[in-house]
Amino acid sequence: MQKEKVITAKDLTKRFGDFTAVDKISFEVEKGEIFGFLGANGAGKTTAMRMLCGLSMPTSGSASVAGFDVYKQNEQIKKNIGYMSQKFSLYEDLTIRENIQFYAGIYGLTDQRIKEKTELLLKELHLEGQEKTMVRALPLGWKQKIAFSIAIVHDPAIVFLDEPTGGVDPITRREFWTLIYEASARGITIFVTTHYMDEAEYCNRVSIMVDGRIDALDSPANLMKNYSAHSMDDVFLHLARKAERSE
Amino acid sequence: MQPITVENIIKTYRTKKTTVDALKGISFAVNKGEIFGLIGPDGAGKTSLFRILTTLLIADSGHATVDGYDVIKDYKQIRHRVGYMPGKFSLYQDLSVQENLEFFATIFNTSIEENYDLVKEIYQQIEPFKTRKAGQLSGGMKQKLALCCALIHKPSVLFLDEPTTGVDAVSRKEFWEMLHRLKLQGITILVSTPYMDEASLCDRVALIQKGEILSVNTPKGITTEFKKPLWAVKANEMFPLMTQIKQNELVESCYPFGQYHHVVFKTQENIKETLEAIAKKGNYTNFEVQAIEPNIEDCFMALMKE
Description:
By secondary structure, chain A is an alpha/beta fold.
């Protein structure tokens, strides 16, 4: 039986004037899959992600995310995805509880559900008793873990993570990946970008963008085999070195 | 004379409600012509230390010297002698590439021509864009321009605060190649990074976490300090495998490392047998196991737990 597809993109393209930022990319992501989206700075990752999140209209091609069309149903897409990045996560001047309530409200949960989810989340993160702490006072690693849990507070079909672990210590970085595995086991699809190549190896499949195209897409094991490489770092260097354009 | 000495530096930030101990008594020294790495995550205290050594911030207590000068008493001499590339892009966005470089040369009473040899190789890569405003450059080009501006007065000590953060693997590699060429010119380099794999590119490193130094050594020396048995395992079912290994009482820690899990044991004996028994019990497919040498990240994590 074929697995349910959460993302399908076909020849998806975005041009800015005469510059083709994303050049006919085609791929599919299955439900519950951890999909690594790699590429050098300027390869077109952010533009592609913005289209898939319903924030930017493609120039041509087609794509559906969580069953919704990126051209016509971008508002529904926004309601059915989660998003988190290193740069944008939580409100520093709100408490942990206020942040959870704020985002749950934004994602349209009912008051009753917000209440339940807030308690559940505080319990899961072992933060009972600390819910009144200002986010500003928390270590970065904690902020990122809370931000991830909040990004999936509405049980989205898919969550987009844009360099979620930058600057985090090695133990917290791994605890963060444990949260990712757990979410994936619950059927939430993970779409993640990272500059840490060991994290690329935690993904079920990885795509590598070069100059707006997807030049490779496979499981880390197969990519390493096909490029006779010992690590994803070698695979990445091999492909990204071919790039002709810089950012 | 060592170009950088740091002795028991303490720095605490206080606001009305909170106190943050950024540096809790840090000591180390950097040798001439060395690439010395400060390796640690955000919040370790790396930037505070850079700001103290470049005389932009005063420590609560302790002593530090740069190029033989005291960071408090002789701050003016230090400012003439060091190059500093802060973590945040700090050039003039509304000046062109060339104007920025001229500006920094001029305030140090020199000219681009005088020290062109030092920056030539890096500057040539951005020269085609010399009339472009710095604010309109790509990340990689901004980084190269910032390095040129930090070098144009031929500093004896170069401070680079997280130059490769958020930079892709290819550009990171190129940046380190540039640093090794600068080292050959006799410049001492203090560089910080959150990427543990970059430690091996330094002559010596200090592992730093929450305002404390965990270890100072050569990269090789750091990994030799790791005494416990370390094993790598893999199977098709990685996540359940980790959960089960962690439950074993002989296991001290188990963390994912790319395609493998690295397992640290409390005991020296029967390790392979223990792991194989776990694999058999859980019916794991394509199970592999081998003893391995630790890398810097294994060491950092072990030191964090001590």
